[in-house]
Design goal:
Strand content: under 5%
Largest sheet: 2 strands, antiparallel
Helix content: 55-70%
Strand order of the largest sheet: 1-2
Radius of gyration: 21 Å
Shape: flat
Number of strands: 2
Length: about 190
Amino acid sequence: MRITLAYFQMVGWLDRLSGLLPLMARVVFAGVLAPYFWASAATKWESFPFNLSIGAYAQIFPRAFEAAGYDVAALSFWHKAIAMAGSYAEIILPLALILGLATRWAALGMMGFVLVQTAVDIWGHQASAATIGMWFDSDSGSLLADQRALWAVLLAILVLRGAGALSMDRLFAGRFGIHNAGTPPPPPLGRI
């Protein structure tokens, strides 16, 4: 009986701490993924904010750019627009997540970005089977299946829970009289 009571007291305490999860997710994103995306974005700009480098097209549309003879002028308007939008997204979305600004939208945007990035890696750059990896095997270090699944879970926390404490979302919500913005309350403990 004492063990059961101690367990449920601990669960109640952990439920109250679960409000820190979004802030922790944003700190981990800032320390682990934002530098990765910003370093990648830096390779895509010849002169910010309007001139993409040749590398941007080679990274985003490897096959189409090769078919165009590595001539940017031979690419379509859509190739250029998508490359520009993706290059801006790689800078703006991580910054929004770190600041906790429009966090749920930014996290959804990053999830879409990672999905497109993964598709380009698999089909555009023809990633090897070892790089792609697979779930439920003994190797947890594949760059695509394993790592990007963890990225998606981190981003899903922000989509589902919002920015949490110390965020622009919370600041703006307080300014406009919206309570509990950014983080829903933890579920009630109830009877089990």
